[in-house]
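User: I'm curious whether this sequence folds into something compact or stays loose and floppy. Could you predict its structure so I can see for myself?
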Amino acid sequence: MMCLKSNVLDRELKQKRNNCVYRRDFSANSTCNTLDYSQFIAKRSVKNVMEVLNETEVILEIPRYPRGATVFAAVCCVIFIIVGLLGNFLTILALCQSVKLRNATTAFVISLCTTDFLFCAINLPLTASRYIHQAWLLGDTMCSLFPFFFYGNVGASLLSMTMITINRLILINHYNLYDRIYKKRYVALMIAFSWIFSFSMLTPTLARAWGEFGLNDETFSCTILRRNGHSPKKFLFIIGFLVPCVVIIVSYSCIFYKVRHSRRNIEAHSPISQTTPSAMTRQNTQRNDEIRLTRMMLIIFCSFILCFLPLMIVNVFDSRIRYPTIHVLASVLAWMSSCINPFIYAVMNRHYRQAYYRLLCSKVRLHTPSTGSSLNRSQNSGFAGASKTVVSEIFVFPTKVKPERNDREENAV
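Assistant: Here's the prediction. I'll summarize afterward.
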């Protein structure tokens, strides 16, 4: 760089001397005198040196992330890719092959697993490449598609969890509406809406009509950038993240309030139950199953929030990336959300464990308790059947008598 600027300076000085010689103007007031040459040389030299120093400063500011942090991020990406692809793929296969788990909740869970699978298959490999090279080497087109799929997948995941929560709310608080709402075609439309809505919100940015997808040189990441002074980040945060979270929190609050209110009514007004021991055992098992299912969905939502909340806090309070290592750790935690759900399914719900077992050990006969789950007795494979519950194909609840229904509602969470 210094050599190039020196050559340019020499050419300018030579041209200036030639002009002076051609005009033969060496008077005191002439711009061709010796003092003028000295001042000219001094000014140009200082200017060139400052330009080189500024350029060097800019170059030194670009790799702001410590090499150890970027290597750690790349290794985590590879681990999450392997675990996420395998875990989510096995979950999708297990739930699709299990006839007795074909219900509305399972359909939403499969949608959630699909978003995580695509995130591990598309976004994480590109992210690993970015941290390995500490630069984006895949061109402008991929730089536009990367954030499109990233934010679209996050939105679809959160909307799938919102659909599950609303499903549970209708089951507990609006029991009589369940059959009319959760039919097969309506469930399919709900899932399609969650995907189309998530990605359609990003279409104006992809078309560069409201902001744009591009490369942020400071973080060597492809993200949403301002265009003509406008950015959709706040809108996307409110509509795509904040509103679904509020809906989920309010829905679970309504469920807990309903359950608590039902429990108090039952304790105050219901007579002593005359249920036989075998029927009581079956009802207790059914209640425990539904408790685990509801708790599992709540834990999935909480894990999602805990994984993404640190990244959001860091981006807000350290937007200038003064602590790059913290940014890397927060990003790694957010990526982890795409591969932890299969472990939650396997640990917290025995019916999902049985589905995994059937898939991986299909030749081994699965023995289930004779007095526990009613999996062996469920015959309905549709979303709406004789039983008006979200888990109608997993559990067989008592007949629709108000005291028994209230008793079931109090144990639903």
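Summary: DSSP finds 14 helices and two strands in the chain. The first helix runs from residue 2 to 23.
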